[in-house]
Amino acid sequence: MTGPARHTDVGAYALGVLDEADAGRFEEHLADCDRCADELDGLMGLTPLLAELKEATPDPGALTARPGPGLLDGLLGEVATVRRARRTRRLCLAAAAAALIVAGPLAGAALVQRDAPDHGSVSAAKQMYEEGEKIGTVDPETEVEATVSLQPKPWGTHVALRLGHVTGPRTCDLVAVGKNGERQTVTTWAVPPGGYGLDGSGEGTKGDEGGKWGREPLYTHGGAALNRQDISRFEVRTLDGTLLATVRL
Question: Which residues fall in a compositionally biased region of kind Gly residues (predicted)?
């Protein structure tokens, strides 16, 4: 480069690519130019970094070297291993699918059996019924058997109900009636076609259509906000208003 030094020479000077004459002229320029002095201070930190990069860069000749025979054998071995692993995985998946096909019906039967209701176990409602104060009645007209089991609670009264000799299908509820005339629904349930607590010969059962469980009474439970001493009676009614039984306290 010839001629006076320019501001753009600061980069070339920092990299050391200026010849001796140009470097001398730039140094004279640098003595009077604060702008170039500031830029040079910032660029001087790049010099050691560039030197490290040069040392870390591999020899281009090494990059074009041909791979030895050991590298090819190793790659072929890895390919064979991957192929064997994939084949083994496919065989395992096929075996699992076959096992699922064979075991599927058995598993389905087990699920159905597990989900079937266990009528032989004691229900929570029946257990609560056994623990309370029991008061019952048999309605002279409907012959519905209703017994309530009462347990005083801080929030009111827990009520469990045992209901028998009721035909279906129908939907019923148990209503607590206070001494002040207040009415509160304790619980609601549906009576299936086979009914509850029937002997198999009563109206609506059609012989043994209800099966064993149609002959079992219903146990259900709920709660009323009324205290035990404030309750006058309980009524078992259908949702259309038919009175099935009254339990007076």
Answer: 194-204
